[in-house]
DNA sequence: AGCCACTTCTG
DNA sequence: AGAAGTGGC
């Protein structure tokens, strides 16, 4: 129990005891100090949102309680520099080893590599592990050792690797605690007073914590999984796995998910249950996308802020904050979009299909910069996940070679009848439309006046007219795209000229700044409590898939009403007058950290290069991937090196957005040129 | 066989 | 949105 020769187990987004390789290694090595460091400022722009912090708080409490039954407890530190905190823990406990599990977001990649260097230099033996993925990103590549750039190829490879993902580890039976008497915990504060009321209702629907995650997994696999393929297209079906927040915080191991699901697959295959097999494949596909998001983040660490196919750099975004606000508040006039945005706003949850609907509406119809939307998702989603969300937004923005086509606009009206054929979802979230017959529920603007009247709807008054008509949106998008191609061509020509003259690339990526946080924060939805035709429901009645209630700010009616006057002169806003009070309050934006920071970061972001070195190698020289090597426990780890490596070429091309040797774009000329050619031939 | 309408899929 | 597939006649 005394100091010395103990190990630090640094827990981050791996808040579980089962199948936690870092924890297992620590326990195997003797006494441990389990540490969680809360240093959200390190995340820059991506300071976790309110609901995400709520989850984390409960997940940590849950983990701590369990660790206590095993013989230790969780040491918590409040910090703005994780590495200094680690050094402190080393000093106060005499630890000689550090174990942690890999993360793949760009900030962690850099920080963890530095942690490794700094701690190693202090004589601490550092080892890191794969706990988040079936295969490490550097294990999966094509025949030439290059990373895949399309999902299908990536996932095929994953499913046909010569070795299976590691079998899950059992939880330790007992843990020997190191002496932490001189290493006091800090009290971590995850929510401020104003957030408590909003958070109170979350606990009715969700149970954070690793053992609850395990239960959720079991429930899903023994229940809804078999119906997954049938039900996945319903907007409000309660048959998704609901595992994503658990997975985000590593409360459950994907490897365990994978193995359990595979067992079902074998079972159903033997029974000849085609639907079951199909369901498994689809579900595994969504696990695969999560894997792929880490893979992409690792191989392209800037993919959360830069489009992977560089042409989008020239897209003339409509930088219109009032559009942004209308989208957030669910007042676009398209019922499916609005219902989704109200649900997100009220519950922090959205079915995957609806995420695609609202985000593609955001990009393709409103022409708003995708990173704003991504940031809003980050701030409001319970399962906000940088890698997954970046992949998702790039997918719908048309910047992946295998994503949605750039010029495709999905019509929310048709999608409405596809995902919500009976209008139940819309009626749940847009009570002002509740009395509209299904025939018109997804396109009220076409409904005869008599029908609208009977339903108590006055378009433009208590429910908005479409913010942009779809035909107009199509025209605007075409125009924007042809502008984009022209700029791109001009820029390409300019760069070629400069190259000839021996000048470097001068085109800097100029990201669009986020709206000021303060603006977003004071941006409360005005409530016009029009009693006429209001479907009065108490927030308790609100039904969400698996969520009975919403993130309602119960204490806020006064505030909202108080804002009524100031909102009245917002001429553009067609505010629904009889919307349910419980969804009228926009969630607070996260802490007022410096949003502009990202913008600066973009330009100062280090060039990432990942060389695959031998284990914990001192020499960070670039070395080609160790393809056939299969090592897990700290075996093959990414070594961050400022020098060039085989992976570096992947990014350097992207910096100017126009492929040089082997940039992403260059490897997918068809997706670029095809569209480009088509566009130009139509417009020119 | 050949045509059309309808469904489903597309990360 | 558009391709590809299915099934009816």
Automatic annotation (TrEMBL):
<feature type="region of interest" description="Disordered">
    <location>
        <begin position="608"/>
        <end position="684"/>
    </location>
</feature>
<feature type="site" description="Electron transfer via tryptophanyl radical">
    <location>
        <position position="317"/>
    </location>
</feature>
<keyword id="KW-0274">FAD</keyword>
<dbReference type="InterPro" id="IPR006050">
    <property type="entry name" value="DNA_photolyase_N"/>
</dbReference>
<dbReference type="Pfam" id="PF00875">
    <property type="entry name" value="DNA_photolyase"/>
</dbReference>
<comment type="similarity">
    <text>Belongs to the DNA photolyase class-1 family.</text>
</comment>
<feature type="binding site">
    <location>
        <position position="283"/>
    </location>
    <ligand>
        <name>FAD</name>
    </ligand>
</feature>
<protein>
    <submittedName>
        <fullName>Cryptochrome-1</fullName>
    </submittedName>
</protein>
<feature type="domain" description="Photolyase/cryptochrome alpha/beta">
    <location>
        <begin position="5"/>
        <end position="134"/>
    </location>
</feature>
<feature type="compositionally biased region" description="Polar residues">
    <location>
        <begin position="671"/>
        <end position="684"/>
    </location>
</feature>
<dbReference type="Pfam" id="PF12546">
    <property type="entry name" value="Cryptochrome_C"/>
</dbReference>
<dbReference type="InterPro" id="IPR014729">
    <property type="entry name" value="Rossmann-like_a/b/a_fold"/>
</dbReference>
<dbReference type="InterPro" id="IPR036134">
    <property type="entry name" value="Crypto/Photolyase_FAD-like_sf"/>
</dbReference>
<keyword id="KW-0285">Flavoprotein</keyword>
<feature type="compositionally biased region" description="Low complexity">
    <location>
        <begin position="636"/>
        <end position="645"/>
    </location>
</feature>
<feature type="binding site">
    <location>
        <begin position="383"/>
        <end position="385"/>
    </location>
    <ligand>
        <name>FAD</name>
    </ligand>
</feature>
<dbReference type="GO" id="GO:0006139">
    <property type="term" value="P:nucleobase-containing compound metabolic process"/>
</dbReference>
<dbReference type="InterPro" id="IPR014134">
    <property type="entry name" value="Cryptochrome_pln"/>
</dbReference>
<dbReference type="InterPro" id="IPR020978">
    <property type="entry name" value="Cryptochrome_C"/>
</dbReference>
<feature type="binding site">
    <location>
        <position position="228"/>
    </location>
    <ligand>
        <name>FAD</name>
    </ligand>
</feature>
<feature type="binding site">
    <location>
        <begin position="240"/>
        <end position="244"/>
    </location>
    <ligand>
        <name>FAD</name>
    </ligand>
</feature>
<dbReference type="Pfam" id="PF03441">
    <property type="entry name" value="FAD_binding_7"/>
</dbReference>
<dbReference type="InterPro" id="IPR018394">
    <property type="entry name" value="DNA_photolyase_1_CS_C"/>
</dbReference>
<dbReference type="InterPro" id="IPR036155">
    <property type="entry name" value="Crypto/Photolyase_N_sf"/>
</dbReference>
<feature type="region of interest" description="Disordered">
    <location>
        <begin position="556"/>
        <end position="576"/>
    </location>
</feature>
<feature type="compositionally biased region" description="Polar residues">
    <location>
        <begin position="646"/>
        <end position="665"/>
    </location>
</feature>
<keyword id="KW-0157">Chromophore</keyword>
<feature type="site" description="Electron transfer via tryptophanyl radical">
    <location>
        <position position="370"/>
    </location>
</feature>
<dbReference type="InterPro" id="IPR002081">
    <property type="entry name" value="Cryptochrome/DNA_photolyase_1"/>
</dbReference>
<dbReference type="GO" id="GO:0006950">
    <property type="term" value="P:response to stress"/>
</dbReference>
<feature type="site" description="Electron transfer via tryptophanyl radical">
    <location>
        <position position="393"/>
    </location>
</feature>
<dbReference type="InterPro" id="IPR005101">
    <property type="entry name" value="Cryptochr/Photolyase_FAD-bd"/>
</dbReference>
